[in-house]
Amino acid sequence: FFDYLGKELGFKARIITASSCVTIPEFNYQRIAEWAHQPCLSQIEEAKKYLDKADTIFLAASWNWHMQSQEFNQALTNFLSNEEYQAQKYIISQEPLLNRHPMRNQRFTYLGIGTKAGLDKDYLRTNQILQELALATNKTTYLALDRLDIFKQPPIWQGHLIYYDEHHLNEVGAIEYAKQALPIVSQEVINAN
Description:
Blueprint: H1 2-9, H2 37-51, E1 56-59, H3 63-66, H4 70-81, E2 88-92, E3 97-98, H5 102-110, E4 119-120, H6 122-136, E5 140-143, E6 156-157, E7 160-161, H7 171-190
Parallel strand pairs: 1-2, 2-5
Antiparallel strand pairs: 3-4, 6-7
C-alpha cells in the first residue's frame, strides 16, 4: 500500500509494525499472543525514536479488535492528544470485515455449495468512533478509506479475490486499495504539507 503510494506521490514511508501490535506508547501488549510480546515492545521502542521528528504519522490497525479494550482506547487517545508530537496524524479506517474466510468461501462456491461471504458490519461502528476521536483531537485526520469503490462488493473486486482472510487484503487488494486511496492521500496529506 505505502510502497505504491510513495512511488506515485514521491514520498518515503517508514513502516514500523509487529504482529497484532499498534506501535504507540502505552499499547497494552499483554492482550496479544505471548510470542508477540517482545517483538511488539521492540517495535514500540523503535517507533519512539521517530515520534519527535516525524512530520506525518499514519495509524492503521485491526481497530475492531483493539478498540474492544478500554486500556487500548485510553492509550490511543493519549497518543493522539500528546502535544509533544508535532506530526500530523492520520487514522486509516477499519476496512470492511468479512464474516467468513474468503478462500474457504471461494472453494465452497466453486463446489456449488457456498454462499457469498458477508460483512461483519461492526466495523462501521468502529469507524464512527475513530472518526469522532479524530475530530476531537488536535492534528488528527480520519481517512474514510473503507468507502472506496474497492469495498463495494467484498471480498471480490472486478472478478478478483482481494482479501487474504477476514480482515487482511491480499497483494492484489492492497495495490488496488492504494490506487483508489491515492487521490484522497494526495489531497489530504501531500497537498496539506
